[in-house]
């Protein structure tokens, strides 16, 4: 029977792959009991009426998760979105209006949390300056093209 002796490189590669697998398993571990309780609270939240439930869900669909990339609070499964969804549900159950809940979220997280932010001078600049630059570039190209076509 022939025994193969593993070279040091193979041993290092095996150790490295074992370490990577261990790290991956640790990072995707089962959530702690407190985190699981919070998830259950959000998923099993009870409203006083069906109208309140519809209002809260529609409102949560208009609010963006601050951690996710273009997902609303209903679509996102991030812990932050679950916390915000629970807070929206609690505020609606307390009798707050949609505008009061939006104001609360904007005060806490900024206008990024809204899918349709209010029009302001800052937002106007954000949209207007690139459009103005594009128009100036087109005008410059047009003038340059006209000058090159003129016979001297």
Automatic annotation (TrEMBL):
General function of this protein: Possible subunit of a heme lyase.
Pfam families: CcmH
Organism expressing this protein natively: Vibrio gelatinilyticus
GO cellular component: plasma membrane
CcmH/CycL/Ccl2/NrfF N-terminal domain residues: 39-150
Keyword Phosphoprotein: no
Protein name, UniProt field: Cytochrome c-type biogenesis protein
Gene Ontology BP term (one): cytochrome complex assembly
Listed GO MF terms: metal ion binding
Similarity remark: Belongs to the CcmH/CycL/Ccl2/NrfF family.
Span of the signal peptide: 1-34
Membrane-spanning residues: 124-145
Alphabetical list of CDD domains matching this protein: CcmH_N (cd16378)
Annotated keywords: Cytochrome c-type biogenesis, Heme, Iron, Membrane, Metal-binding, Signal, Transmembrane, Transmembrane helix
């Amino acid at each position: 029977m022939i025994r193969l002796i593993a070279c040091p490189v193979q041993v290092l590669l095996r150790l490295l792959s074992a370490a990577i697998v261990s790290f991956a398993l640790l990072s995707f571990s089962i959530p702690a009991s407190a985190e699981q309780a919070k998830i259950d609270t959000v998923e099993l939240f009870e409203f006083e009426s069906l109208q309140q439930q519809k209002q809260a869900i529609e409102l949560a669909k208009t609010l963006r998760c601050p951690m996710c990339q273009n997902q609303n609070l209903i679509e996102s499964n991030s812990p932050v979105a679950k916390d915000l969804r629970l807070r929206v549900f609690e505020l609606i159950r307390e009798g707050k209006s949609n505008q009061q809940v939006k104001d609360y979220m904007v005060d806490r997280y900024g206008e990024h949390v809204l899918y349709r932010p209010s029009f302001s001078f800052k937002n106007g600049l954000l949209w207007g300056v690139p459009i103005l630059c594009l128009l100036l570039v087109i005008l410059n190209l047009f003038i340059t093209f006209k000058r090159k076509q003129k016979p001297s």
